[in-house]
Design goal:
By secondary structure, the protein is an alpha+beta fold. It is built from 10 helices and 15 strands. A hairpin with a 5-residue loop joins β14 and β15. The chain starts with a helix and ends in a 5-residue tail after the last helix.
Length: 334
């Protein structure tokens, strides 16, 4: 009898098997696009209201579409503003990438973006050469500085446009919200920009991410071209087929060369970047697009923390692709 009691007591003292992780999903609309958060946990730990509050806080800081946002206050100021943590973090990254890409990526390009009809006030008029020359003196990230918690400008006409990296940053912030809740398996996506960590449950498979490919014209929205499996990191894509204007026989892409004032003209169709976080990936996908193929490949060889998949147009007009070695290792094979 004593043995039976001891055996039952021993079974009771054994640690119970952990509860299986369940899949939870939140989705909605933000920053002119949609978002989806998929995470695996024992219980529902994140509410839609928490996500909405975080998104609203970011928009109040970085959105050009909110008249009273902090970035708009900076743009309308003569000397600058006191910056919140969101503006400080994103501008600090923008300045670092500006330096590392020799000015190919430049967050002060906003007046040119607006002039070419890709800003908050749409226009179909092509800017004249004189208009572009008049704008160029206010372009250049060397004209802005972070001093303590202040973001200052040395030229009154300097305006910021952080739309090229704000979505990547937003994805990172939402991922940080999950991490704060001790969630270690998730995929956050906003407007095609992604942050991922961990594995699916209960299969234990790595997260699978599809990469878009344009058709042979280089401008039409495609189906999936490549699928990668990733344990952690940010994945973002910049593509001329996503946002452009057709004016007669001429296609004008939305990425503007801050040095010339005109849209970049090169063979690049799209660049997908994998980096430790989505903010970094989002900044460099734009920069690589502007560099052109040869310089982009050289840049990737010198920056091993970045992996990329590039789709480009050959001189013959046919579409081709290439990828860094690290990207190739992430490819999912059926």
């Amino acid at each position: 009898m004593e043995c039976g009691v001891l055996f039952a007591l021993a079974l009771w003292l054994l640690p119970s098997s952990p509860a299986p992780l369940r899949s939870f999903q939140l989705s909605g609309y933000a920053q002119g696009t949609t978002y989806t958060i998929t995470y695996y946990a024992k219980d529902s730990l994140v509410t839609r209201s928490e996500v909405s509050r975080q998104l609203a806080e970011i928009d109040a800081s970085l959105s050009l579409y909110q008249p009273n946002s902090l970035i708009n206050q900076f743009n309308q100021s003569a000397r600058g503003v006191v910056a919140d943590r969101h503006l400080q973090l994103v501008v600090r990254k923008a300045l670092a990438v500006y330096q590392q890409t020799d000015g190919v990526f430049d967050a002060t390009v906003q007046p040119l973006v607006q002039a070419w009809g890709f800003g908050t006030k749409p226009t179909e008029t092509i800017p004249s050469a004189a208009a572009i020359q008049a704008i160029l003196p206010a372009i250049g990230s060397d004209k802005i500085k972070l001093r303590g918690d202040s973001l200052v400008k040395t030229v009154a006409g300097v305006h910021l446009d952080l739309n090229g990296i704000a979505q990547g940053y937003t994805v990172d912030v939402l991922a940080a919200l999950l991490e704060h809740k001790r969630i270690r398996n998730y995929l956050v996506e906003l407007g095609g920009e992604i942050r991922v960590r961990g594995r699916k449950s209960p299969s234990g498979e790595l997260m699978r991410i599809g990469i878009e490919r344009p058709d042979s014209s280089g401008w039409q929205l495609p189906g999936m071209q490549q699928v990668i499996q990733l344990s952690a990191g940010g994945v973002t894509t910049s593509g001329n087929y996503r946002k452009y204007k057709q004016q007669g026989a001429v296609t004008r892409a939305h990425l503007i060369d801050p040095k010339s004032g005109y849209p970049f003209q090169n063979e690049m169709i799209s660049v997908t970047v994998i980096a430790p976080d989505a903010l970094t990936a989002d900044a460099y996908d734009n920069a690589l697009m502007g560099m052109g193929l040869a310089k982009a490949l050289t840049f990737l060889q010198n920056h091993r923390d970045l992996q990329a998949y590039i789709i480009y147009q050959r001189p013959s007009g046919t579409v081709a692709d290439t990828a860094s070695q690290g990207f190739k290792r992430l490819l999912s094979h059926p």
